[in-house]
Amino acid sequence: MPDRSDLPSTKPIYVRIAECRSILGVSKSTIYRWIKDGSLPVHKIGAISLIKVSDFEALVEGAE
Question: What pLDDT score does 10 carry?
Fold first, then answer.
């Protein structure tokens, strides 16, 4: 079996809203407000709402 310790770590491309809330430390209503006002794009796959990690990173960087 190959040794995976030398592989680069990867981060997810998309996360669910709950994961985004947890990472950013904000409330559910804040996430939905950002989605509603267009600050945070959401991608729907069936009933699942996904947020692109680079989108919420850009939102946070813009707020600093």
Answer: 79
